[in-house]
Specification:
EC number: 2.7.4.1
InterPro entries: PLipase_D/transphosphatidylase, PP_kinase, PP_kinase_C_1, PP_kinase_middle, PP_kinase_middle_dom_sf, PPK_C_dom2, PPK_N_dom, PPK_N_dom_sf
Family: Belongs to the polyphosphate kinase 1 (PPK1) family.
Function: Catalyzes the reversible transfer of the terminal phosphate of ATP to form a long-chain polyphosphate (polyP).
Distance between the termini: 54 Å
Structural class: alpha/beta
Oligomer: single chain
Radius of gyration: 28 Å
Helix content: 25-40%
Organism: Cyclobacterium jeungdonense
Shape: globular
Number of helices: 19
Strand content: 15-25%
Number of strands: 27
Length: 708
């Protein structure tokens, strides 16, 4: 019997030795969605994860679906890891996306909405309000909202307006007086992003949140006088936000303008998705589909009882009224390698010991303290660092500006291609350049993702270099919710490596071999694959062998096939991959010895650790790079080797604790599905997002990842 096309697509996917990057990402967002279902979370936590899952899906359509349309629209060939060509893959991707979208909407309507009242708030439309409350709404609308609304008609005399990405928009179908019913006109009313998402009313001990679109819907007739309104349709579009910065012949002169031009293109990029309320005008939707060359699978329907754009829920989650409702994160604890953190001068400490920071369990304060002191210290001569993402009102920028004022040389590489942070980075970079910093706006066509800081200080008859290398951004805000690892050191070998790498970044230099640093795009893939090959060789000789890796994403096919070969040689391989994983674990004859888990919980797992058993002569590397094509070929990345025995044990324990977790862990199956890991019978719950706050040095003394 001939297989249906859907069955052929599924068969192709299941027979592939690799899992689709995009389908794997959707499975990651399923794990985020799963947080909403956990009984231990209250309504505010559930709303938080709902907003995160919805924002993730927005970015997925802007970047990944947008990238797919770059192939579809220009008839370019794209073969996914699943083995599917671009058209069949889009069909599969849209089916999965539609199903996820429906589950998200259904859960909000059926499981969450009725629980809000017991938490002290209600989401309400205007007609369900009390009479006095409706008057308040009406007054607010005409005084504050009405003047900001602009109806934009599309007809033979008016061009199609530019509709903005991710804004709520009303499409209003009207018929003029005396005109025939089929002589319809379509007007658009965009809701400006600077109007609060909800109007807040206080009713005794209850907060009432009225969505801005319900307020406008109730009074929209005031924008369309003396015409018949046939339908009012709330919708939202997502545009292609994927762009590639082409290397310019005159990069120094035109680079920033090229970035700005590409940013502006996001505003008018190709529409890849329409979200629209049920009961919409088919005439209007057909017009939009034709205008934007979309099929029905790109139309995502929203239940009338639901809410469009769950990211608006942050207004409720962040309300001061409910600030005590989201469980507080425990206070950071001192680093295991620096228990006296608040009592000693950081410069003096680092002369005698290395300090490993594990955020958010350890505060970012030692890094900020080092930078603040360096800015004021008359003996500090230079500060160099890379910046990828910054916090608002960043102390980092403040310290660097102070250092320049105090006459120090400051070199900063601002990565202006950091996705969705481009404008902020350009603004901050220009501020620093104007103050006298030496600012580099990225390196050629490579994105600089490495996280490095170098402070050069003259002390008596010698110069000491203070180094920070890490897996996370220099961002005080995200350091409280992202798990990351950083090393503060004056180790001369690593300082030489970092100095050399800065020369490569800021000048025209081809590096010699580094001793404790692995960098991309030149060496990283080859070096890591060589470490994998050595483990496979050891296993084939009967020598204990093991590979333990914790990363955000695993996508590079060469790296994956090296792991497959190691598995076939008998190497025990444990992978902790938060998001995308294109490797297929546990397949007979291919990957029986590979296990994959994903940790999704209160903190976003962002650290990267590569640990190779190496016959107990351990190789342990930490840094900014995931095992992805972009990390190995298209970015400046770094991994640094940790040789200090105590710090190495700490890193091994991080891996061990991740593998022990039975509250936040999901076990990946051969088919790409994930099963939540639960405590076994008689086993105590183990939640790493709590346990790392309780860690003491003696707990890591006997750490081992494999026996023998």
């Amino acid at each position: 019997m001939k297989l249906l096309q859907h069955d052929k697509i599924e068969e192709t996917i299941n027979n592939s030795e690799l899992i689709s990057r995009d389908l794997s990402w959707l499975k990651f967002n399923e794990r985020v969605f799963d947080q909403i279902k956990k009984d231990k979370r209250n309504i505010f936590e559930k709303f938080k994860f709902l907003a995160i899952a919805a924002s993730n899906l927005d970015e997925f359509f802007m970047i990944r679906v947008g990238s797919l349309y770059n192939y579809l629209d220009y008839d370019k060939v794209r073969i996914d890891y699943s083995g599917l060509r671009e058209d069949d893959f889009k069909k599969k991707l849209m089916i999965e996306s539609q199903n996820f979208h429906k589950r998200l909407q259904r859960h909000f309507v059926k499981e969450l909405l009725f629980k809000t009242q017991e938490a002290g708030f209600i989401l309400s439309n205007v007609r369900n309000l009390q009479e006095e409350e409706q008057k308040t709404i009406k007054e607010y609308f005409y005084k504050a909202v009405y003047p900001m609304l602009t109806p934009m008609v599309f007809d033979g005399y008016h061009t199609f307006p530019i509709l903005m990405n991710k804004l709520l928009i009303f499409g209003v179908v009207t018929i003029g007086p005396g005109e025939k019913k089929d002589n319809k006109k379509l007007s658009f009313v965009q809701i400006p992003s600077n109007i609060p998402r909800f109007f807040e009313l206080e009713r005794e001990d209850m907060m009432i949140y009225v969505p801005i679109e319900e307020m406008i819907r109730e009074h929209i007739v005031s924008l369309f006088r003396n015409v018949t309104i046939e339908s009012i349709n709330l919708f939202r579009i997502t545009r292609n936000g994927d762009f590639t910065l082409e290397e310019s012949e005159d990069m120094d002169t035109n680079f920033l303008e090229e970035v700005k031009r590409k940013l502006n293109e996001r505003k008018t990029g190709r529409v890849v998705r329409i979200e629209i309320e049920e009961g919409y005008s088919k005439w209007m939707v057909n017009l939009l589909k034709q205008r934007w060359t979309l099929n029905d699978d790109s139309i995502f329907k929203i239940e009338r009882r639901s809410l469009m754009d769950f990211s608006g829920l942050w207004q409720i989650i962040g309300s001061k009224r409910f600030k005590d409702k989201i469980p507080a994160t425990p206070r950071p604890v001192p680093p295991l390698s620096y228990p006296e953190a608040a009592s000693e001068d950081i410069f003096q400490v680092l002369k005698h010991k290395d300090v490993l920071l594990h955020h958010p369990y350890n505060d970012m304060e030692p890094i900020l303290e080092l930078l603040d002191k360096a800015a004021d210290d008359p003996h500090v001569m230079a500060i160099k660092m890379t910046i990828y993402r910054l916090a608002k009102n960043s102390r980092i920028v403040g310290a660097l500006l102070k250092a320049v004022e105090n006459g120090k040389h400051v070199s900063v590489l601002f990565e202006v291609k950091a996705r969705f942070d481009e404008e902020n980075n350009i603004r901050e970079a220009k501020k620093m350049q104007k103050a006298g910093c030496f600012v580099i706006y990225g390196v050629s066509n490579f994105k600089t993702h490495t996280k490095l800081m170098l402070i050069v200080k003259k002390e008596e008859n010698r110069v000491t270099r203070y180094v920070h290398v890490g897996s996370g951004n220099y961002n005080e805000e995200t350091s409280r919710i992202y798990t990351d690892i950083g090393l503060l050191t004056t180790n001369e070998i690593l300082a030489n490596d970092v100095s050399e790498f800065f020369n490569v970044i800021t000048g025209h230099s081809a590096p010699t071999n580094y001793q404790n640093l692995i960098t991309s795009p030149r060496d990283m893939r080859n070096n890591l694959i060589e470490f994998i090959r050595i483990e496979a060789e050891n296993a084939s000789k009967g020598i204990p062998a093991g590979i333990f890796i914790k990363i955000n994403s695993l996508e590079d096919s060469e790296f994956i096939f090296a792991l497959y070969k190691a598995s076939q040689a008998g190497v025990r391989i444990k992978l902790i991959v938060r998001g995308i994983c294109c490797l297929r674990p546990g397949r007979k004859g291919l990957s029986e010895n590979i296990e994959v888990i994903s940790i999704v919980g209160d903190f976003l797992e962002h650290s990267r650790i590569y640990h190779f058993h190496n016959n107990e002569n351990y190789r342990t590397y930490v840094g900014s790079a995931d095992a992805m094509v972009r990390s190995f070929d298209k970015r400046l990345e770094s991994l640094f080797k940790v040789e200090n025995e105590f710090l190495q044990k700490q890193l091994m324990n991080i891996l061990r604790y991740n593998l022990w977790d039975n509250e936040n862990a999901y076990v990946m199956q051969e088919n790409g599905q994930y099963i939540s890991k639960q405590p076994r019978e008689g086993e105590e719950p183990f939640n790493i997002h709590q346990k790392f706050f309780e860690l003491t040095p003696d707990m890591i003394e006997d750490v081992r990842l494999i026996d023998g």
